[in-house]
Amino acid sequence: MSHSLHRFGTVEDLKNDFCIYARCARGVNRDHPGEKLRRILDIYLSEDFVNFGSSHAGKSYVNGLDPEDYKETLDNAYGIIISFADRNAVKGVLTKIRDAQLGISIVVSGLIDEVVNIAHECGLKPHTATLSLGIFGNKSLLPKDETLKITTMCGHSLIGTPLVESTCEKVRQAKLTPEKAAEIIAKPCTCGIFNTRRCAELIRKQLENIN
Predict the structure, then answer these.
(1) What angle, 0 to 180 degrees and rounded to 10, lies between the N-to-C axes of helices 112-121 and 87-100?
(2) How far is CA 106 from CA 163, 188, 196, in A?
(3) What is the pLDDT of residues 84-119, one digit of tens each?
(4) How far apart are CA 21 and CA 6, in angstroms?
(5) For the segment 122-163, what is each residue's pLDDT rounded down to a tens digit?
(6) How far apart are CA 35 and CA 74, in angstroms?
(7) What is the pLDDT of residue 189?
(8) Residue 95: which of 120, 71, 130 has the closest Cα?
């Protein structure tokens, strides 16, 4: 799940940022996985989730994707992804999926130590770990760190710096709340891994630092 791997930020502001991806494998369990994926989606939604989405539907939950409508598309899908801002919710999802024994690979993205600890608390042993090695090249061309923390929550680079900066400026002018600004910024990210709760908190902290 490399598109969720490069989320930028401090350990502190990444502690409540997780993505979970159920992914079928070609030649193993990709044929007609709809019923299992629907069960996994029900498990996802049973906990305190933030966002999910579908590139096929072209929108995310925060942009109006209805869970029941989404379920009807899963017969032709091979994976579903969702974002969380609560550690206990992630633990609850993994425990329920463990008990369901559906035979579909589950990938969890977040701070590595936190993800491993949650897995162990659920009685699970992580199979593989993929780590981001950071940013290389001419970093002077990058936007400021506070903007990168937001744009990198869309791993397909669909959320641009101008959108983030202009929306945050409207919050500074009291034209938008941080929560509403986070929803606007999230809209281009159709796969639903954009964590609007973290985004709102990052915007709020930006304002505190300015003031």
Answers:
(1) 50
(2) 32, 25, 22
(3) 999 999 999 999 999 999 999 999 999 999 999 999
(4) 15
(5) 999 999 999 888 889 999 999 999 999 999 999 889 999 999
(6) 8
(7) 92
(8) 120
Does residue 193 contact residue 51 with C-beta atoms inside 8 Å?
A: yes
Residue 1 banded pLDDT, cuts 50, 70, 90: low
- Number of Cβ within a 10 Å radius of residue 15: 15
Kindly report the average pLDDT of the chain as a whole number. Answer: 92
Model pLDDT for residues 65-84, shown as the tens digit of each residue? 999 999 998 988 888 999 99
For 164, list phi and psi in degrees, rounded to 5.
-65, -50
Look at residue 2 and tell me whether its pLDDT is greater than 90.
Answer: no
Question: DSSP assignment of the chain, as one string?
Answer: -GGGTT--S-HHHHTT-EEEEEE--TTTT-SS-HHHHHHHHHHHHTS-EEEEEETTTTEEGGGT--HHHHHTTGGG-SEEEEEES-HHHHHHHHHHHHHH----EEEEES-HHHHHHHHHHTT-------------S-GGGSPPHHHHHHHTTSTTS-S-HHHHHHHHHHHHTTSS-HHHHHHHHHTT-TTS---HHHHHHHHHHHHHHH-
Cα gap 146→144, rounded to integer Å = 6
Query: Rounded to 5 degrees, what are φ and ψ at 34?
Result: -55, -45
> Cβ distance 140 to 60 under 8 Å?
no
